[in-house]
């Protein structure tokens, strides 16, 4: 396995971020498809790729959480698929074939209209991804691993996969990351290396929110989960069994450090790199 980091986690300009990550010893970078990338032409994207190459950083994935429309809404899903297709095309120019994104919450009931709409829209997005040699990697968090596995099996496309985030699973859904790997193993193409603590258990679906087929928001009687993200190694993710499960599942891709909060992102990323290096070396 290799260690990388999310471009936005350092909170510094792109050239500075690349130089810092290279100096740390990271091998890869996941690029957030911010506006500057979405509007860039092929020549500009080639420049970005060359900058990454010059620093010895592989583009492990592109994060496609860039749309205001939803895979679950009848009047919006086609636009959401079009945006995904655009990110697939720019990812190809950056040298990556993995596009990670949150898709919303998968309901446990496969007869739920939201489940059916997600299966339909994600099938279209996944099939486009496959046609370009790419994979739509669904980020874990809102639902149990078994629920996510069911819809991935139903979609049945070589263009669908999983971006496994162990912290989302643990701090929001109180799901053991190693167990999630056992359930989702064959679909895992990318991971986020993040840690967190669940403070008060609640409903993951209520925490993330479900957007109905008509665009309204589902109401929940259950309370939301209460949690916080913490530096890697300081939370409730059990890293040794999790990393062992990834290895047993045949995963040999990137552990991509993600830090969404904290006053010292560079220090936290360095700490995360050293923590992971000690585990996989």
Rg over C-alpha atoms, rounded to the nearest angstrom: 18 Å
Number of domains: 1
Task: Classify the fold: give the CATH topology.
Answer: TIM Barrel
Write down the secondary-structure element order: EHEHHEHEHEHEHHEEHEHEH
The coarse overall form would be globular
Number of strand segments = 10
Strand content: 15-25%
The CATH first-level class comes to Alpha Beta
In the predicted model, the low-confidence regions spanning at least 5 consecutive residues are none
CATH superfamily: Divalent-metal-dependent TIM barrel enzymes
Number of helices: 11
Q: Mean of residue pLDDT?
A: 97
CATH architecture: Alpha-Beta Barrel
User: Which range best describes the helical content: under 10%, 10-25%, 25-40%, 40-55%, 55-70% or over 70%?
Assistant: 40-55%
The major beta sheet can be summarized as: 8 strands, parallel, barrel
Question: Strand arrangement, largest sheet?
Answer: 1-2-3-4-5-6-7-10
SS-based class: alpha/beta
Q: What distance lies between the first and last C-alpha atoms, to the nearest angstrom?
A: 9 Å
